[in-house]
Amino acid sequence: MSQWRAGTVQAWLEVVMAMPMYIRTCSENVKSGKVLLGLTDEDLELGLAVSSVMHRRKLRLAIEDYRDAENGRGLSKAADLDHHWVAKAWLSDMGLPQYSQAFHNHLVDGRLLSSLTRRDLERHLNITKKFHQVSLLLGIELLQLLNFDKEALQARRIQCEHQNVDPLVWTSHRVIKWIKDIDLKEFAEGLLSSGVHGAVMVLDPTFNTDAMATALGISSNKHMVRRHLVEEMQSLIGTARAEIKQDYEHLGLGTPPALLRQNSPRPPSSTGRHTDDEGSLRRRAVKPPTGFSPKARNGRDLSCHSSDGSLPREGRDQTPPRSEGSPLHGYTSIEVTNV
Question: How many CA atoms are closer than 13 Å to the CA of 79, on its beta-carbon side?
Fold first, then answer.
């Protein structure tokens, strides 16, 4: 990027970043790649008239990625995920295609996706259903675990398309296929646009049979059907969670619940400017982490149920009392809801 001329900068902004709306102000102010590499949030807002918080963040994360590339480390794998892939393919795989337009409007690409928090989802993308937030954050978590390598992700999904193995990488469509395969096809449509995918089933230790039954719309008086679901889920998820636990222990990271951490509230900015965006970005690395991380990435709150695994009703989004020795104390219970 440091070698780019003004024309290359403008072409990058239009083609790669999909932001032709800023070309005029860019051509007037940014005459080289070196200048682009030094832009601050204030430069983007005041100099280039980028008023959108998400657009500024997207540009800053890209610029930071290119700074790393200048040091010989190359661009992150997240750079390969454009906003079309995120808005169409990824959201569909998560079982939440209803948010495609919102993601498309904010031009959410791989780098920006890696930075999203629950607060971002609610405030900027208007995703208010708690379980949908959790579903998306766990989907991002899966990408983090694979270093945002979509080819590696797709290869694993192909291998388990016709075998009930490796549920961690299952799309929502694959989960629905599994539900049909275990003779519960009459309930399968309950998972459409629900946000239930493999990463939810494996990475969230509180996502249990009751949660799945509720998502499927299996009433509580269907005891034998629920018993059948218990056996099938234990067979599928028990092994996968055991493998994840072994991976964490092998790396000295404890257990998978370490992925779950409450968002820490931040005091308001004394200047009143860029509080949401700048505060969160300072804590994020642009390049995806290698392997697993002992800390919850990006400070995400990924819990989605109460401590006993039940699904609380609307209006009972409360923090359970702290219990010493429990790795899940302090998490907010939220509701799984279908659309």
Answer: 18
Query: Cα–Cα distance between 97 and 84 in angstroms, integer?
Result: 12
State yes or no: pLDDT of 144 exceeds 80. yes
Q: What does the buried/exposed string (b/e) look like for 102-118 if buried means 16 or more CB atoms within 10 Å of the residue's CB?
A: bbbebbbbbbbbbbbbb
Contact 177, 183 (CB under 8 A): no
pTM over 0.90: no
Handedness of CA 96, 99, 101, 104 (dihedral sign): negative
How crowded is the C-beta side of 244, counted as CA atoms within 13 Å?
Answer: 25
Tell me the pLDDT tens digit for each residue of 90-103: 999 999 999 999 99
Pairwise CA distance, residues 226 & 210, whole Å: 8
Closest CA to 263 of 114, 121, 141, 119: 119
Q: Which residues have C-beta within 8 Å of that of residue 47, sequence separation ≥ 6? A: 25, 29, 39
Of residues 20 and 265, more confidently modeled: 20
pLDDT, the chain, mean: 80
Buried (b) or exposed (e) across 155-177, using 16+ Cβ within 10 A? Answer: ebbeebeeebebbbbbbbbbbbb
Three-class DSSP category at 32 = strand
